[in-house]
Amino acid sequence: MRSKRWRPQFIALAILVAFVGFSYSYVRFFVRARTHSVIVFFVPGASSELLALAQARDPTRNLTGLDRTDSMAFVESQSSDQLTGDAAALASFLATGQPSPAGRLSLTYDGKPADTLLYKAQRRGRAVGVVSSGPITSPGVAAFYSHQSDASVSSAIA
Fold first, then answer.
1. Taken in order 56, 57, 58, 63, is the CA torsion positive or negative?
2. Cβ count near 115 (within 10 Å)
3. Distance between CA atoms of 144 and 26, rounded to whole angstroms?
4. Separation CA 149–CA 92 (nearest Å)
5. How does pLDDT run across 58-101, given as a tens digit for each residue?
6. Nearest to residue 152, comparing CAs of 60, 87, 95, 100?
7. Which of 85, 86, 88, 113 has the greatest number of CB atoms lying within 10 Å of its CB?
8. Contacts of residue 90, Cβ cutoff 8 Å, sequence gap at least 6
9. Neighbours of 23 (CB within 10 A)
């Protein structure tokens, strides 16, 4: 009679292990992973050649840390109305994904506000914010949250 006591405990343990295994496989294979945040580093003047030179100078030191990122892109852009773009045109291109005229912040060529990454994320229920080591009214930062026809007027941007 004593040997039958372990059977219910063994059955309960087997059910528990099966439940844990099913739960793990369900989460692993059927639950879609969502990106919770997007971090954009706006670094004027950075290029793949510059990063390669920095890494070649001291290969033992991890200078960039960019090899651990999920996604990375380098963008070369110009304004829609000039051959050489300014900071406002480049930042507006990064913020909206479409070329904009020189000296304007996140505006299309006909003067209408273009949709920026911050506003798209905000409409999807994401928390958004801007962190800057420089002035928040500089064209590189302001293009993500402001729509202005003159990027040089700091009071209108703020």
1. negative
2. 15
3. 39
4. 12
5. 777 666 566 666 676 666 666 666 666 688 888 888 888 888 88
6. 87
7. 88
8. 44, 75, 77, 140
9. 10
In the three-class reduction of DSSP (H, G, I as helix; E, B as strand; rest coil), residue 96 is classed as helix
Q: How do the residues of the chain divide into helix, strand and coil, expressed in percent and rounded to 5?
A: 40, 5, 55
| Alpha-carbon span 63 to 56, nearest angstrom | 10
Distance CA 7, CA 20 (A): 20
Question: Amino acid identity, residue 110?
Answer: D
For 152, the token pair is 């040089």
- Output the six-digit token pair for 98: 């479409």
Q: Which residues are registered as beta bridge partners of 107? A: 113
78 burial level (CB within 10 Å; 0-12, 13-18, 19+): middle
Give the pair of three-digit tokens for residue 22.
């099913």
pTM for this one?
A: 0.59
92-136, pLDDT tens digit by residue?
A: 888 888 888 888 888 888 889 989 988 888 888 888 888 887 788
Instruction: Indicate the length of the chain as a whole number.
Output: 158
Is residue 146 packed enough to be buried (19+ CB in 10 Å), middle (13-18) or exposed (0-12)? buried
DSSP state of 32: P
